[in-house]
Design goal:
Helices cover 18% and strands 17% of the residues. By secondary structure, it is an alpha+beta fold. The strands form 2 sheets. A two-stranded antiparallel sheet has the order 1-2. It has a two-stranded antiparallel sheet with strand order 3-4. It starts with 11 loop residues before the first helix and ends in an 8-residue tail after the last helix.
């Protein structure tokens, strides 16, 4: 999956893996679906960041821009994105996660034979 420093742009196979992991914008409380999201390098490419699953997170445009403001920390813990707000948002800087995406109902339905 990982492409390291070989390229900045997130290839399709890595984006699909991020969609499976994050299910859309990973910012807590946001419900934007993957089609409305961008893949953000946690450690910016220009600062030596790699294009790897553990260094990217899916964000809607609003939250992507928000995280470029000083004080926000994003990290991957136990395979899931975690957001630590700046002190002016939360003086205790408690890490926050979005609940994991719920499986779609269609995924749980049994297959039914059709035809005669």
């Amino acid at each position: 999956l990982d492409v390291g420093r070989a390229m900045r742009t997130v290839p399709a196979h890595l984006r699909r893996a991020v969609v499976v992991r994050d299910g859309g914008c990973a910012f807590p409380g946001c419900g934007r679906e993957p089609g409305w999201c961008e893949v953000h390098h946690i450690l910016e490419w220009e600062h030596g960041g790699r294009t790897d699953i553990d260094n990217v997170v899916m964000l809607c445009r609003f939250h992507h821009r928000l995280l470029h403001h000083p004080g926000w920390i994003v990290r991957i813990r136990d395979g899931q994105p975690e957001f630590i707000p700046p002190k002016w948002v939360d003086s205790q800087q408690i890490p926050r996660r979005r609940p994991p995406p719920t499986p779609r109902v269609a995924d749980a339905r049994p297959l039914v034979a059709v035809g005669g």
